[in-house]
Amino acid sequence: MFGSIFGFAILKPLSKALPDRFGGGYFGPKENVCCQSAATAAGSLGLLFTSGFPAAYQLGLLGADPSADFGRLITFTLCCAYVGIFFTMPLRRLYILKLKLTFPSSVATAYTIRSLHVGRDAAANARKKTWALVTSFALAISWRVTSEYAPGIMWDWHWSWWFYRAGWEWIICAESWGWVWEWTPAFIGCGLLVPMNSSASFVGGAVLAWAILGPALVATGRAFGEPMSPLYPGYIDYADMDLADPVHRPSPEYWMIWPGCMLLLTSSVAEIAANYKTIATAFAVLLEPAVAQVRALTNAGGDKAAHYKKEDGFYDPVPLEEQTPWWMWCGGLVLSSVLTMLVMKYQFDQNPGITLLSIIFAFIFSLVGAECVGRVSVNPVTTLGNFSQLIFGGISKGSALSPQRNELNNGLTGMITLAAAEQCSDMLGDLKATHLLGASPRVQLYAQCFGALVSIFLSTAMYVVFSKAYPCINTLSSSTCEFAVPDVKSWRAVSIAVSDSSLPIPTSSGIVALAFMGIVLASTFAKYRWVPAEKHHWVPNWNAVGIAFVLGPTNTYPVAMMFGSVIAFVWKRRWPRAWFLLGYAIAAGMIAGEGLGGIVNAALEIGKVSGNLYGTAVGCPMNEYCG
């Protein structure tokens, strides 16, 4: 979204001011989507530096500091940049043309781009859409910025804390379990776009995890919380990931990781298995030109090319010359995989076979990430990376490596999974916007490759700079830090746990995870075996349920998304014409406005005029600023 709006603001005037030979000329929606695709790729790799790498430095697994490891950080980031991009291309036909996943943020982006290019002589409806977009965008960005100065009043409503302070003491449990109302335009906007099934499953998973299972675990002594403060009895932290004994004294958040991961993995694999013919056809279509050439060379009927019609679900409106040829993504995938194995061998001393296996698992987990983003616009990449750590931690223990080497190896392979899943889902999102705007998928591949190249150097350099300015990011010596980086806690905890001599999964958590696996497999089988296609929306979306589990006791997102879906449901029923005229535009403005509001807030923080310094803590728990 940032790339689409900033790209328009910068490149549209330049396209008119510059002559053709210096980049001037026509700049329309297709050019705009290319710009935002490059921006998406440039932003994807930053997650490496807010999770795995700080955890590795905190555990003493790399050099003295990031500046001393700059070369290794660059080469590792280079490997992570391209594997996910190239194996995404064959998935386009499955997720976008066949399954037609929503990709809410991508729909909003495509709509934003289309609205940005409406001229002054456009039709009245187009002008109404543009004004709706601009108005919702302005309101969302203003709300996001001003709410930083009164977060407990304007942004998060800690309603149970208010009742607790009024004397209703037991209600504080709702605050402890994350049941807070948040006025987030982005997730309310996502709720306007996603199907009711996804939102209902998302909030249903939150209720199951953090209103039923979590309290039951604590009541029966299978999970444990820590008091937030002796001054406020009953206010408990259930999200601790820095655990001395994660197997016997897990926090509820740690306990939920494993059932959540099993839900995500099993759901995606079951959907893929149920659509195996679809996948086989997708790859057949992609490889058909190569097969035809081989047949021609062997005189085995080279002219008998397969023809796929609209009813096959694979009719592609994109002209052949704008599609990505098989040799391009196959060649890129082979080269990036070989490069990754070489870098991991000679710079991190990891067995090439293990690296190749990690790439295969990265592809599998990327399917999970793509499903999640396509359905509810949330990508649990950190949890997917943690799950990969578990797998390769066990493999490393079988190789009799030292605990420290095991921690490094499982951390690096987990980061490969994280980066690949993020790049894959981002690329599919871009391809969804591309599909909606009728642009070229091949051009998006080029844009992603160039955007990732910029990010390799820029994100690494920014990490080095921030590490020098704020050393607490990479150390455990300071109890307070300007940056919370919550994913680092998770990464560090799992790195230590999987290096232990025993399986780092609480027994009860493992049993529940296996039970969920059986439920998901049976549900998916019944869905495709006996439930008519038009009734599939009545079957729970297990990906959304799994996301609610792994998000931790933070239920603001599913509740806000459900709120948006209810508004959309009523709006479509009562005023359908108004919905189709304005609904997507308003949702797009809300999502973009909150995102850009976050950038403004970051600038205010750097300028020392942020809400953190000048805001009020009124309405916040324990009277501490909660922005």
From TrEMBL:
GO molecular function: oligopeptide transmembrane transporter activity
Subcellular location(s) per record: Membrane
Keywords: Membrane, Transmembrane, Transmembrane helix, Transport
InterPro entries (alphabetical): OPT (IPR004813), YSL-like (IPR045035)
Transmembrane segments: 70-91, 202-224, 326-344, 356-378, 445-466, 511-530, 542-571, 578-604
CC terms in the record's Gene Ontology section: fungal-type vacuole membrane
Pfam entry (one): OPT
Topology in membrane: Multi-pass membrane protein
Family membership noted in the UniProt record: Belongs to the oligopeptide OPT transporter family.
Full protein name: OPT superfamily oligopeptide transporter
Organism from which the protein derives: Daedalea quercina L-15889
Lineage: Eukaryota, Fungi, Dikarya, Basidiomycota, Agaricomycotina
